[in-house]
Specification:
alpha+beta; six-stranded mixed sheet; five-stranded antiparallel sheet
C-alpha cells in the first residue's frame, strides 16, 4: 500500500532524481557534473552540499536500476550518460501457468521490503488483465523480519565482502570477514552463506547472531576459493541446517493418551508389556531428529515419553538435558539478571516509512507502463501498483511536477493526459518502458518463484511453470545462462554438522582460469533462496486445500499438544494460512460449535465427506477470529533465552526485553498457562530459564525433578 501524500522534504529529492535522469536521457552524449549542478534545482548550494546531494542521487538511481557510465568528452571534464541498453524492461511473453506462478510469487513474502520488491517486479512483468485471480487459499511464506537482512541480500547479489561481529553457538564473539554468496531461509530463520576469509572455508551464519551492522570489507585477491564452485548447492545447505539427512529411528514409550507430538511423528511399534516403563504405556517408533531435535521433542514432554530401555545413549542425552535445566533453576536467579529485569524496555517496533526511493520508483513505473502501452487504464495502474483510487489520483497529480528542470527547460515537465479512464504521459518519451528490475529485485522474485515451485498445488502445472518463469528471468533479465544443476532447486545431501558457522559443503571449486577473484561470480547460484519449510504432509495439505476450495465438510483426527489430547473433529474449513514456519487451518468446528484454528502438522487422516456447506456469517468471522490466540494469557512471566535461541522469544510477543552481556535475552511475555513455561524449559535444556514469578520458577524445578525421577525409575526397571 502506498503512503499518503508525501511532504515537500520527500518530494524535493524525488523531483531532483527524476530531473537528473531526464536530463541524461535527453542529452544522449551525457552531461558533466558542472552542467548538472547548474541545471538541476537544488544543486546550487556550496560544494559540500552539492557533493552530498549528487552522491545520494546517484545511489538512488543505481538502486532504481539505472546504470550510469562516466567517460571522457571533448572537454576536459568527463560526462555521465545513461546506459540505454540496460535501462528498460524487455517484454517477456509468459504463458498462462507462468503468469499464475508469478502472481503467487508476489504473495509469498510477508516482510515489508521483500514484498514491496517482488510485488513491484510482478506488477511490471504481468498485466493484471491477462492473469486470473490469485488463489485465496494458497499458503503464504511469512519469514521473520530480521535486522540487516536487506544489506546482506544486496551483498550476496554482488558477491561482496562484508565484515561483522558474530556470536557463535557456544557464545564466543568474534570479528568475521565473509564473502557473501547467498541468503537462505530455513525453518523460519535467515542464514548468510559465504566464504570466511579467516577460516579459509565456506560457512553459514545465522543472522540473528550477527551483533553489528555488516560493513564493506576489502577482498583478498589471494582467496582463490572465495567464489561458489559448480558443485555448490543451496539445497544441500538447507537440508543440512534443517536436519534432513537420512535419520535413524528410535523406539519411544508414551503414557496412555499423552505425548501427542510423538504419536504424530511416529508409528506404533511392537513392544512387550514387561518392557514398558509402567502399565498401559505404548511404544512408538520415531525418526531421530537432527542436532538437538530429540532432546527438544522428548524434553518438552517432561517424562510423558521416554526412550526405550535399549536406547541407553538417548536416555543419557535426555538426562543431561534436564540436568542442565535443573542447574539453572537451582536457587534464586542471579543478582545481575534481576538487576537487568529492572532495565527492561518495550522492544523497538520497525515501522514502514515511504522513502524518496519508493516514490521515485513508482512515478517512473507509471510513466514507463503508460508509454509502453500507449496509454493505460486507471484500473490497471491501481492493480499493478496496489494503489487505491485516491492514491492513484495523488500520484498522477504529483507526476506533473516532474520532468526536465524548469529552470532551463520551461514547459518540459511531464503532462498527464486523462482521456476517460485511460492515462497517457506526454513529454516523457525517453522513458518508453518501465525501468529494468534491479538485480536484488530479480533475485528476490526468483526466490519467490522457487518457493512457489515447492508448494503443493491443486494444479500440477504451477510447480514446473514457476521454475520456467524463474529460468526465463535469469536468462532474459539477468543475462545469465540457463541454470544447470546449480540453482536452489537442486537436490542433494550434505555431511556437515551444526546449526551455524558450519562448512557449506561441498567446498567450492577453484575460480576458473582467467577470472578475477574480486569480481562477482557468473555461476547461477541463487543469491536469495527460500524453501517451503512447513513440517506438514503435502498430501494432507492437498486434501485440506481442496476442501477449502470445494467448501466441503472435513473429518480429521487432531492431536492437540496444548492439553496433550487427541480428538476427532468435524470441520467446515475456511482458510489455510501460514505464520512463521507453521501452517494452520481455520475452520468452524461442529464439535465445539466455535471458530477454531488447527495446526496442520497435528492433523492426521483428513477425509472429505460428501457434504458441502454454504458460507455464512460465522464463516466470514472465522478468518479473523480463529487465528492462533497468541494474546490469550493466564500469567505473565520473565524468561531468559540464551543467545543460542534468543530469537525464539519473538514467537511469544515480548512486552519488554533486555540484553545481557553474554548475548542472552530477557523477555516479559504472556503465557497461556504454566505448562507452556515448563515445556519451554524442558525442551531447551537450560537455554530457557524462568526468572519471575518466583512461584513459577519453583513449579518448573519441581516438574524437572519429576521428569528426572521418571527417567531414573524407567532406567532402573
Amino acid at each position: 500500500m502506498a503512503a499518503a501524500v508525501p511532504s515537500r522534504s520527500l518530494l524535493d529529492p524525488v523531483e531532483r532524481v527524476i530531473s537528473v535522469l531526464c536530463l541524461l536521457l535527453y542529452h544522449e552524449r551525457g552531461r558533466s557534473r558542472s552542467q548538472l549542478r547548474r541545471e538541476v534545482e537544488g544543486y546550487q548550494g556550496d560544494d559540500e552540499s552539492f557533493e552530498k546531494l549528487f552522491a545520494w542521487d546517484r545511489r538512488v538511481l543505481s538502486e532504481l536500476g539505472v546504470r550510469l557510465i562516466e567517460q571522457q568528452s571533448d572537454d576536459e571534464e568527463p560526462v555521465l550518460r545513461v546506459d540505454h541498453d540496460a535501462l528498460t524492461l524487455p517484454r517477456i511473453d509468459f504463458d498462462e501457468p507462468e503468469r499464475r506462478a508469478l502472481e503467487l510469487a508476489a504473495t509469498v513474502w510477508d516482510d515489508d521490503a521483500l514484498r514491496r520488491d517482488v510485488s513491484r517486479a510482478v506488477g511490471l512483468l504481468v498485466a493484471p488483465s491477462s492473469a486470473p485471480t490469485q488463489q485465496a487459499v494458497m499458503p503464504r511464506v511469512v519469514p521473520r523480519s530480521t535486522p540487516r537482512l536487506d544489506t546482506l541480500m544486496a551483498a550476496a547479489v554482488e558477491r561482496r565482502w562484508v565484515g561483522f561481529d558474530y556470536r557463535d553457538a557456544r557464545g564466543a564473539l568474534s570479528r568475521r570477514r565473509v564473502r557473501a554468496w547467498a541468503t537462505v531461509r530455513v525453518s523460519g530463520q535467515w542464514y548468510l552463506v559465504g566464504w570466511d576469509a579467516d577460516r579459509h572455508d565456506s560457512r553459514t551464519f545465522r543472522l540473528s547472531r550477527i551483533e553489528t551492522d555488516p560493513r564493506p570489507e576489502q577482498g583478498d585477491p589471494a582467496e582463490q576459493m572465495s567464489l561458489p564452485g559448480p558443485d555448490f548447492s543451496l539445497r544441500e545447505v538447507h537440508d543440512r541446517l534443517r536436519g534432513e539427512e537420512e535419520a535413524d529411528t528410535l523406539r519411544v514409550w508414551v503414557q496412555p493418551g499423552r505425548a501427542q507430538s510423538v504419536r504424530v511423528a511416529g508409528v506404533p511399534a511392537p513392544g512387550a508389556e514387561d518392557e514398558a516403563p509402567a502399565p498401559g504405556w505404548e511404544a512408538y517408533e520415531i525418526p531421530v531428529p537432527a542436532h538437538d531435535g530429540l532432546e527438544e521433542m522428548l524434553g518438552e514432554l517432561l517424562g510423558r515419553a521416554l526412550p526405550d530401555a535399549q536406547a541407553s545413549s538417548a536416555r543419557q542425552r535426555l538426562g543431561r538435558w534436564w540436568e542442565q535445566a535443573r542447574r539453572v533453576h537451582a536457587g534464586s536467579p542471579d543478582e545481575a539478571v534481576l538487576r537487568a529485569v529492572e532495565q527492561m524496555r518495550p522492544p523497538k517496533r520497525g515501522r514502514r516509512r515511504s522513502s524518496a526511493l519508493d516514490w521515485a520508483a513508482r512515478f517512473l513505473d507509471i510513466v514507463g507502463i503508460a508509454n509502453r502501452e500507449g496509454g493505460v487504464t486507471r484500473a490497471e495502474l491501481r492493480e499493478r501498483f496496489g494503489l487505491s483510487e485516491a492514491e492513484l489520483t495523488t500520484h498522477l497529480q504529483l507526476l506533473r511536477f516532474c520532468g526536465l528542470p524548469e529552470r532551463y527547460y520551461a514547459g518540459w515537465l511531464f503532462e498527464v493526459v486523462e482521456d476517460g479512464d485511460v492515462v497517457r504521459i506526454e513529454q516523457a518519451e525517453d522513458i518508453d518502458a518501465p525501468l529494468r528490475l534491479t538485480r536484488p529485485e530479480a533475485h528476490r522474485l526468483i526466490a519467490g518463484l522457487a518457493t512457489v515451485e515447492q508448494m503443493p498445488h491443486h494444479d500440477p502445472r504451477l510447480g514446473p511453470a514457476a521454475r520456467r518463469a524463474a529460468d526465463r528471468i535469469r536468462v532474459e533479465l539477468l543475462g545469465e545462462d540457463a541454470p544447470v544443476g546449480t540453482s536452489a532447486h537442486q537436490g542433494g545431501n550434505d555431511s556437515g554438522t551444526g546449526h551455524d558457522e558450519t562448512a557449506a559443503s561441498p567446498a567450492p571449486a577453484p575460480v576458473r582460469a582467467g577470472s578475477d577473484a574480486a569480481e562477482p561470480s557468473t555461476e547461477s547460484v541463487a543469491a536469495v533462496a527460500t524453501f517451503w519449510d512447513v513440517r506438514a504432509d503435502p498430501d494432507v495439505v492437498r486434501v485440506l486445500d481442496q476442501a477449502v476450495r470445494d467448501r466441503r465438510v472435513l473429518s480429521v483426527s487432531y492431536h492437540s499438544v496444548h492439553g496433550d489430547r487427541h480428538s476427532t473433529r468435524v470441520l467446515e474449513p475456511v482458510e489455510l494460512f501460514q505464520e512463521g514456519p507453521r501452517l494452520y487451518l481455520s475452520a468452524w468446528c461442529r464439535v465445539t460449535e466455535q471458530a477454531r484454528t488447527f495446526r496442520v502438522d497435528r492433523i492426521t487422516r483428513p477425509e472429505a465427506t460428501d457434504e458441502t456447506f454454504s458460507p455464512g456469517r460465522r464463516h466470514a468471522a472465522v478468518a479473523t477470529t480463529a487465528r492462533p490466540d497468541h494474546k490469550r494469557t493466564e500469567l505473565t512471566a520473565v524468561l531468559r533465552f540464551a543467545h543460542r535461541i534468543a530469537d525464539l522469544a519473538d514467537e511469544y510477543g515480548p512486552v519488554t526485553q533486555a540484553r545481557l552481556e553474554d548475548g542472552s535475552r530477557l523477555v516479559e511475555v504472556g503465557l497461556v498457562d504454566a505448562a507452556v513455561a515448563h515445556g519451554l524449559v524442558g525442551a531447551h535444556g537450560g537455554d530457557v530459564e524462568v526468572i519471575l514469578p518466583a512461584a513459577l520458577r519453583v513449579q518448573t524445578r519441581e516438574r524437572i525433578d519429576a521428569a528426572l525421577t521418571a527417567l531414573a525409575d524407567a532406567s532402573a526397571g
